[in-house]
Each structure stands twice: as C-alpha cells, then as structure tokens.
Q: What sequence folds into this?
C-alpha cells in the first residue's frame, strides 16, 4: 500500500485540487481517482442500505415506504368490499341457476345440487327419442307458466309478453347408419338450423309435431348438439340497503343436449349467463345509490392514483439502479481492470421492486374493470376477470411485506433460506416432475377407462398430487373396477410404487435440500456471509458513519454528479474535503487489495 504524501495531510489542500479537461496527465497524477473511489463507495453503501438506514443517513422522508403502507390499506379495503359484493353476486346467480334447473329441466333432482365425492347420482341425460321431445316440452311449459314461479321472474319484452324461445339443431349434413350390414352414409359438415318455438299458442307444446310441421325432422344418428335458448329478467331486492337500491339482471338461459359422443346417452345441462341491467327504479323507493356510487368510485380512483405513484417511484428506482450498475461496472473496469460479475450485477436488480411494479399494474387494471362493473358499462359478466386481477395483485402486495420483515435478522432467515435453496430446489423439482409426468401419463392411459380419478389427464395429476399429501388413499384403491384382473393388480403395484417413491424418498430428499440451505444460513450468521468482489469493495457501514451526516453531501444526491466525476475532472466537491486521512488511507488500501 502506498503511503499518503505529507503535503496532503492538510485536508484543506483538497479543495484547491483541480483538474483541467485538456490536461489528462495532471488529472491522472492528482488524488481525484482516490476521491472518486471514496464517492463511489459511499454511493454504493447508500444504495444497499435498507430504508431505516437511509433515513438515518440522509433524514429524508421515506415516501416510497409510506406509499406502500397507504397502498396496502386502500387495496385491502377495496378487495374486502369487492369480495363481499362478488360473493353476493355469484351466490345469487348460482341460486337462480338451481331454480331454473327445477323449473325447466325434466327429471332434475335436488341431490344433483350438492357436490359430493364419489357422486351420489349419475349425469342427467335422455336415452329415448320420446324423452328428448318431452324435455323440450317440459322446458316450454315452465317458460310459458313463468308467473307461477316463486322467483320474481319476468319475460324480457317490455310489455312482459313471452319472449322468443329458440331451438338450434347442430347436425351432420348426412348421417345415416345401416347397422345390420355395417354400412353408413356420412358427411362430416355440420349444419346449424334454428327455429322459434314460442310461435305456438297456449302453454303446451308438442315439439315433435311442431318440428315436423316446419319440415325439420331430427335424425338422432346425425344430431351433434341441440340448444334451447330464452331470456328472463328479474330484480334482486336482497342487494338493497341503506345506501344501495335493488339490482336488475337478465339471464340468458341455454339448455344443451350434448350428443357428440353418439354413445346412446344424450347429456342434458342448463347454463344461465347473467347480465346486470340499469334499473329504472321506483318513485316510492327514496334512497338511491348516489352515495354508495360516489364512495366506491372515490376508493377506486384513490387506489388507481396511489398505484400509479407507486409504479412511477419503483420504476424510477429500478432505472436508477441500472444506471448505477453501469457506472459501477465502468468504474471497476477503469480502476481494477475487470468488470462486475453477473452475480454482482444482479444485486442491482431489486426483485421486490419488480414485484411491486407487477402488482401495481394488476391493481390498476383490476380497479379500472371494477369501476366499469359498478357503473354497469359492461355487457357481459366481468366479475371473475376483475377478481383475478385484484386477487393476484393484493396477494403480491402482502408478499411485499416480507421485504420489510427481512430487515430483521430473525425474519430474514426464511427469505435467505428460500433464496439459498432456490437453485437446488429448482433442479430437484425438475427431476421429480419428470418422474411425476411419467406416472401421470401411464395412469391416465391404463387406468383411465376403469377408474373415476383417472378419467382425464388433469384429474390423474390431481389424484397423484393428493396421494402425495396422504389424501383419500383408501378410496383410490377401492374405486378401481374389477372388470380386468390384470389391470386390478397393475393398479395396486402402480399406486404402491408411486406412494412409496414420493412420500418416503422424494419428499424426504426435498426436505433435506431445504434443511441444508437452512443450516448453511445459520452457519453464515455465526461465521459471516461470504462476500463478493463488489461487497468487499463496499465494506461494512457502522451506525456511527450512517448517522454522521457524511451521506448528506450533494455529491451523493445524483448519479449525474458521479458520472461527471468518472468522465472528466472538475473542482473537487467541498463536501468530500472533510474526509479524514484515515478514510483516504482505507480507500487506497481497499483499491490495492482489489487490484
């Protein structure tokens, strides 16, 4: 390490040191590179401080931290209110769908309304031509006698007259089967034919005669799908409260007869798409929704504004960090003849800010959709789309709280352990997923036709994942069909092998990978964390230095000043003239070691 010349012992001489841009030799012979190194170290030290240390260093108002606190409160309140209204909306539409099933589906039973496993009843289907026509007649009768329903249902026409009930038939252009001699006539082109069924007078319909009258004979061997469609309007009084009026809806009901498999079983299902309408109101209902509308819109706009502010601040921080990375890389190349490593470069990319930027975008989009829903400007139902944006955005916001808990040693262990174990876990999961994929495809192919849980690729994967977690094991063994002795024995070997492999071996190894990373982090806390080249250059910052005021100089306020010091020689900033000789010696020593 070179000693500092006595002529520089007096710190006041630093202020008189100047560099002429035209005299590069004088610039190189001066102490300017030494001071630039100290400024770079201070800049990096401040950059890698946490918000508490930055507050102690510069006494600046932590606006990004405050913005995040305000955002998490507003977004959580918004999500709670939206979740409450969405639950009421989804529950209301679901209950109406059940009511429509009882009114318009022949053979519907209350046991089909309960999701049980294994299913208590088979699918609703028709197996005879007569049943097909009777199901259409039953739906028409229920629609014609809509006034007898308990629900406040009305026809879609303004005069409350019966709206059009449309039946659409999707049939192959030609589809005649001669099973007795194994021959057929077939044309795969699908022809769609629609007819207004509500032209019939009275409350009864003979669909067979009606379709024959209109020259529409159904060839069930060629029939792919049939749809019966009609609209219904209703008003929901339950949504009314002290500051909100009733809600108006239109349900577009569709009864589907699915015959795509042509297996003798025509599945019957009912769907009802809801559309919220603007109510015309009642003169006797005094309270309107102006107060609620203003409050909800105000909350939505506040959330959008605070998320935009957060997005701008975090985007600026990410951009400035990348600028500082480029400056630091240039500094290392100039002074030490080596660029930053990829690991050190990644330290300038704050993934917490990236996550905040993503959740800001999600919340802004979700709040905009929510505002349009509440203003009833959407024709279709967008509740699920809005809930996806708001839900994921709010989840990421709460994940971001871990960033502030990470400033404390006790809580930071979890984050550091996950970070340390991430590469090993990724490689381990890749191998485990390959084995898992093999079991999934094998089980789907072999056991699918004979086992309820292996009917599709998705259900097979869900079944195997449940078995890993010890869920419903006995039922998985017991449901297997006994039609084939070979497959029955194969299912036992298959399930025993998969469960033993994943529960006793793979999960144990997975836990050991996490525990190994945890033990390593605990060892680092005792013996110190390994430091990269960049961290060695930055060094340690103690509390006295942070609160001493050395980071409040103008030279540290902007990257522009630092870049100017790297690119040219100017008058030495007064704020750095107060650096002690010891600091300069340490800087010179650090540069000698790094070189």
A:
């Amino acid at each position: 390490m070179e000693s500092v010349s006595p002529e520089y012992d007096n710190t006041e001489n630093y202020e008189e040191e100047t560099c002429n841009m035209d005299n590069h030799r004088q610039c190189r012979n001066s102490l300017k590179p030494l001071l630039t190194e100290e400024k770079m170290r201070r800049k990096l030290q401040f950059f890698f401080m946490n918000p508490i240390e930055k507050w102690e260093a510069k006494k600046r108002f932590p606006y990004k931290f405050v913005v995040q606190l305000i955002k998490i409160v507003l977004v959580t309140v918004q999500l709670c209110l939206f979740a409450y209204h969405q639950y009421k909306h989804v529950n209301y539409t679901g209950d109406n769908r059940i009511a429509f099933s009882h009114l318009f589906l022949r053979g519907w039973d209350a046991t089909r309304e309960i999701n049980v496993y294994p299913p208590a009843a088979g699918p609703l289907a028709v197996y005879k031509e007569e049943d097909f026509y009777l199901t259409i007649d039953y739906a028409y009768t229920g629609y014609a006698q809509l006034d007898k329903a308990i629900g406040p249902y009305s026809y879609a026409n303004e005069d409350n007259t019966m709206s059009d009930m449309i039946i659409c038939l999707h049939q192959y252009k030609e589809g005649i089967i001669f099973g007795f001699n194994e021959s057929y006539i077939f044309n795969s082109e699908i022809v769609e034919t629609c007819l207004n069924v509500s032209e019939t007078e009275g409350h009864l319909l003979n669909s067979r005669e009606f379709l024959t009258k209109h020259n529409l004979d159904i060839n069930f061997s060629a029939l792919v799908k049939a749809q019966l469609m009609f609209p219904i309007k209703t008003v929901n009084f339950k949504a009314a409260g002290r500051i909100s009026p009733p809600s108006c809806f239109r349900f577009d009901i569709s009864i589907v007869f699915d015959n795509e498999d042509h297996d003798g079983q025509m599945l019957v299902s009912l769907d009802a798409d809801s559309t919220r309408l603007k109510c015309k109101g009642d003169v006797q209902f005094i309270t309107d929704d102006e107060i609620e509308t203003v409050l909800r819109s105000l909350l939505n706009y506040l959330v959008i504004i605070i998320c935009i502010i957060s997005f701008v601040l975090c985007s600026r921080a990410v951009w400035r960090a990348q600028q500082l990375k480029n400056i630091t890389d240039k500094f290392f190349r100039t002074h030490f003849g080596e660029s930053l490593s990829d690991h050190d470069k990644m330290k300038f990319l704050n993934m917490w800010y990236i996550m905040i930027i993503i959740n800001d975008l999600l919340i802004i989009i979700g709040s905009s959709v929510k505002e349009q829903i509440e203003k009833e400007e959407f024709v279709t139902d967008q509740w699920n789309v809005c809930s996806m944006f708001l839900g994921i955005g709010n989840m990421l916001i709460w994940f971001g709280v871990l960033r502030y808990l990470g400033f404390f040693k006790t809580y930071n262990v979890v984050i550091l352990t996950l970070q340390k174990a991430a590469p090993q876990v990724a490689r381990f999961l890749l191998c485990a997923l390959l084995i898992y994929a093999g079991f999934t495809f094998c089980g789907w192919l072999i056991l699918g036709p004979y086992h309820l849980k292996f009917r599709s690729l998705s259900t097979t994967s869900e079944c195997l994942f449940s078995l890993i977690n010890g869920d419903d094991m006995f039922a998985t063994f017991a449901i297997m069909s006994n039609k084939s002795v070979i497959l029955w024995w194969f299912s036992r070997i298959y399930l025993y092998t998969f469960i033993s492999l994943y529960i006793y071996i793979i999960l144990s190894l997975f836990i050991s990978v996490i525990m190994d990373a945890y033990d390593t982090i605990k060892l680092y806390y005792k013996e110190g964390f390994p430091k990269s080249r960049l961290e060695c250059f930055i060094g340690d910052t103690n509390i006295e230095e942070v609160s001493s005021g050395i980071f409040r100089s103008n030279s540290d306020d902007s990257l522009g000043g630092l870049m100017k010091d790297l690119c040219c020689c100017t008058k030495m900033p007064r704020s750095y003239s107060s650096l002690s000789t010891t600091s300069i010696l340490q800087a010179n020593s650090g540069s000698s070691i790094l070189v």
Observations:
- The first strand starts at residue 125 and ends at 126.
- Residues 105-287 form one domain.
- The chain has four domains: 6-49+541-594, 63-82+291-407, 105-287, 410-527.
